[in-house]
Amino acid sequence: MTTLVIPSASPSPAMLPLLRRRPFPLLPLLGKPLVDYQLELASSLGATRVAVLCDSRPEMVRAFVHTGQAWGLEVDVVALPRDLELAAQLERLPAAFRDDDDLFLLAADALVPPLAGERGRREPPSEDWEDDQGWLLVRQGATGRAKQSLPDRRLRDPRRFLEVQLALLDDPAGFVLPGFEVAPGIRISRGSRLSLAAVVAPPVLVGDHARVSDRAELGPGVAIGPRCLIDDETALSRCVVLPRTYVGRLLAGSELVLDGPLIVNTANGSVAAIDDELLLADLDKPLLGGRFRRLLHRLGAMVLTVPLSPLMLVAWLAARRPRVLRREVFGERTRLSVAGAPERQLTRGTELNSSRLLLRRLGWLLDAAAGRIALVGNPPLEPARAAELEPALRHGWLEAPVGAFGLAQSEALAAGGPLDRDQEAMSAALYAARRTTAGDLGLIWRGLAAFLSPKAWRARQD
User: Is 320 helix (H, G, I), strand (E, B) or coil?
Assistant: First the structure.
């Protein structure tokens, strides 16, 4: 009995944006999860049992592989704590796996085509496999075995993730790609709709039940994931669209990975969250969810402005009347350029030029009522500080818009002196965590407390 173990992955920080909606084993390659390719390989090796070790959302992996009967295998998904070394992972295997003398390890990020021959009737390899990045397949405990070099298909960063899929489109190299070829270089999967007029140049692959407008322009080198929607006048080349992503009108770009609201530019490694469901959206969420949330924030700010304005005015007068002017201010927002790359756009406006925190906070409420900022959201983050935060926290921060209460809490922290890294991260964690209605209500309560804090009545910030 041959047993194959796939250890838990330790993805690089650059890969974390692509793992927001899925664990590493379910990372889609040309519409198929990575673990699907690995189980096909395990079956061709003659393995009878496979253990998939997973330290992130193992229930999703378990639901996909079920019992492994689809591959003719007995598959067990083992949940692990995060950041365990390989030896510690193997110690947590079930006893039936640890006692097997014929135990092979397959690198978690390895993509290897199945061996040719009758399925399930091959002998395990007599040599270890490796590539430029190190081992791919090794027999546990064996020493002095011969080694065989294989092509490097590791998924170590978004750029390599894109390059591997485009290389498979050009040359499958032993892999069975999804769909069927309707024209040279054009593959269509079941239930999908694509007009050949939308293909500018092959190769192009369209996943299951995807929809592509006949006025879109695809190619060369485009992979559309299952259940995606590609709207009119979209122009993509050398791009990968991950499953259940809506790509809106007029988006044009190259060397991009699109995943829900995130756009990853593999040419320079930048990541941007697009807060516009008409441009990019996650189809697992209602398309009107973001607009409805912004409407609620505006209505909430309008409701709060009425009772809070007199209180803040009285507090302002009690703190001696300061000089009030309006000044021109500049800000930034992320948008897509004509070439499709994320870029920062300068915005200008006016605000109350007062050193009194109370007046500035009233201005934030008015901005929230006008829809310029959110009511509940992050305080702005300096790029230098952002680089010091954990990647998961930084990406979570990107997805939350600037909010009035976030600014208020940031000011409340800063009133005690300059913020250090821990305080900045604590302020970020209030909003970057998974959002719930109860959590938002708690943030509103703390934001109101910061808005009306007596310490701020006489507080100045020159």
Answer: coil
Q: DSSP states of 18-37 as a string?
A: GGSSS-GGG-EETTEEHHHH
Q: Give the chain's end-to-end CA distance (angstroms, integer).
A: 74
Q: How many CB atoms sit inside 10 A of residue 423's CB?
A: 15
């350029």: which residue's tokens? 337
Hey, what are 3's tokens? Answer: 């047993």
Q: What is the DSSP letter of 40?
A: H
Helix (H, G, I), strand (E, B) or coil at 77: strand
> Angle of helix 437-451 relative to helix 289-318, nearest 10 degrees?
20
- State whether the Cα torsion 196-201-202-208 is positive or negative: negative
Residue entry with tokens 């092509």? 151
Confidence bin at 156 (pLDDT 50/70/90): confident
- State which H helix or E strand residue 348 sits in: strand 342-353
The pLDDT tens digits for 207-220 are 999 999 989 999 89
CB 97 within 8 Å of CB 1: no
Q: Which two tokens stand for residue 212?
A: 């592509």
Torsion 309-311-312-313 (CA) sign = positive
Residues whose CB falls within 8 Å of the CB of residue 425, separated by 6 or more in sequence, listed in order: 389, 390, 393
Tokens 């990020």 appear where? 109
DSSP code, position 8: P
Strand order in the sheet with 103-106: 74-79, 49-54, 3-6, 103-106, 134-139, 128-131, 147-149
- Residue reference for tokens 């109350």: 352
Residue 377 CB contacts under 8 Å (≥ 6 apart), including other chains: 400, 401, 402, 403, 404, 405, 406, 431
Which amino acid does the sequence have at 152?
D
Q: For residue 359, what are the contacts with CB-CB under 8 A and spacing of at least 6?
A: 312, 316, 322, 324, 352
Angle between helices 421-432 and 391-399 (to 10 degrees): 50
Using one digit for the tens of pLDDT, what is the confidence trace for 329-362? 555 554 444 344 555 555 555 555 555 566 677 7
SS3 state of residue 222: strand
Of 81 and 118, which is predicted with more confidence? 81
Residue with token string 């390659």: 29
Cα dist from 116 to 44, 122, 124, 174, whole Å: 7, 9, 13, 8
Tokens coding 207 = 């996943």
